[in-house]
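Researcher: Next entry in the queue.
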Amino acid sequence: MRVPFRDHQQYNEKVTVLSPRTIVSEVSPSSVPLRKVSKLVDNYTAEVASEVNLKPEKMKSLAEILPDYARSLNNGLYRALDVYFKVCFLY
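Model: Structure for this entry, 91 residues:
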């Protein structure tokens, strides 16, 4: 985009114009909404991890339901697995 200077009719060729389309394309896959979903899924997984009858295949599918880049940290998932393993070894 060419923007004229106020004093002259010369054009400044170095102006960058950002449109919503360019801003959206620069957002990483681990965007805020996906991280919120990740936190919700990890909290749900931690909640159901204490269920005695939860099979390992189901726990694995809950842990793998989101891509790796969706989690900024895996703390929620680690907490869920910790609960699950404690319950498994107690019964």
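Model: Strands lie at 3-4, 11-12.
Researcher: Noted, moving on.
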